[in-house]
Write the structure tokens for this entry.
Amino acid sequence: MTALLKRAHLKPSARADRGRGFGELRGGPLGVRIATTEAEIDAAQALRWRIFYGEMGAEPSAPARALQRDIDAFDAVADHLLVVDHAIGPGPEGVVGTYRLIQQDAAEKIGRFYSDEEYDLAPLVAFPGKLLELGRSCVAAEYRGRAVMQLMWRGIAAYVFHHQIDVMFGCASLPSRNPDDWSAELTYLYHTYLAPPALRCRALPERFVDMCRMDPEDLDARRTRASLPPLIKGYLRLGGFVGDGAVIDHAFNTTDIAIVVKSDLITDRYYRHYERQLRDALD
């Protein structure tokens, strides 16, 4: 087991510095904020383990299996957005949702973004402005619903506003290693939401899976959009685009697509709806 996977995290003080200025946003007993302690990050990794490996049947590496945690090198440089149920507790015991946020300067410490394993990110890296990679999103089964997703997006809006992020991106997953299970959805996404050239990342040649899998004239657009996973629909509602080509992630039992969102779309929307709360969180 490498020293990195034993717990190569930033020191808690360094994480607190990165998250400074973004407090906690509340929605009833639920709160959303950035993890600042090793115990909170461990709780996020434990939640990811239960969902990705316990529920979705992902195949863990030997170190991850030994730790019973979903963990990799990027956790050490990422910020970890948490949804906390204060009815259970205000700390790690209350973590019921998480999202991993990797800023461009953090990715440079690793030498790449996580999505580099699947996509050519050259257009995004060349795009003027700051990048933020989103990933490892999961919510405990009993909390999956509109309220938690809205709270997570409010947290991301506060984060990107505070850090002046210009473009968000990441890989979103369809639950199957067979892209033909999602022929209508992949075709619909390609023909309706393909990113403009300046933001269009493309699946690596050796991993490229054509998204155009049927005649778009045969699509029932309303039914197809409704069948998309909630996270992907959330990105689309925020004005998101998709990259060119899907990728099969055999370890996680998924078909992945690249998502790109201009961050001004999310901050404008959520700042309008939650102006006072976001201003208070960023003071």
